[in-house]
Amino acid sequence: MLVDHYRRDLMDKLVGHRVIIITAQDVDSVCTVRILTSLFKTEGIQYILLSCSGITDMKAKYADYSSQSDKFLMINCGATFDLLETLENPPKEKTFFVLDYHRPIHVINYYNSTGQVHIISVPEPEEVIPEFDQIFREVPEDDDEEEEVDEENSEERRQRRADYNEWAERRQKILFDYREYSYYARPSALYALEVVWVMSRDDMESIWCTIVSLTDSLIMRRLPRAKYTEFASTVNDHILRISNAQTLPRDCLKVRFGRELFFICIATGPSTKARWEPPTSSAR
């Protein structure tokens, strides 16, 4: 299920609990962790921070620390695969909040029936998740063999089975089309900024971390220029709001957000070395 109210559906459920944070190791994850852990310290929420380098490492970290808390925050890991199955079906009191920019979201996580998985996200225009009835349906049960089945009931049973088989074929195609391509949603740091804003805890540091994350997403080509400009405008609104609200001396830290030169780096050398060269850089 999606978390659409950050105070009620996220923060109120974490207050008073120790939170296990399992995070990936990229720039956006570091920025997101910085924003949220600062919020947790302010709100008096205890946490344990763990980093993982893949699904196997994530499972190992969960196994090692699962006994220490029932609340887990997964940052940039856990959205694209069946999280509960991967973690070997944890007890129902375990709750997982997933903040992940990787897409597509696994449909089992999205339509989680136990209420254990909460996706911190908003539907993107290009993100079309299949409807529940398109991918979930009860398997028709055959009549009891001991009961006498007349010709009419037998025909009805065959029709139900035929309808189900037709639905199963459509389901397979829908899921194939949905999972055919992987892509990226908005950076997780943008959601973290919205959380601290809702809690009235946002500041220049959280905005700076969001800018770093947003710029990294552009440089690493996880965001097209149009999306980057859209999100940059949102961040700029936060900058203006905080700048106007603060009464600080003029020589204090000011954050300004603007466009910079964007160069293509041309590297020479063997192809194996070129793979590790950054494709772009920025200059001021």
TrEMBL record:
InterPro entries: CDC45 (IPR003874). This is Cell division control protein 45. GO terms for cellular component: DNA replication preinitiation complex. One of its GO terms (biological process) is mitotic DNA replication preinitiation complex assembly. Residues 140-162 are annotated as: Disordered. Belongs to the CDC45 family. The keyword Nucleus applies. It comes from Orchesella cincta (Springtail). It is found in: Nucleus.
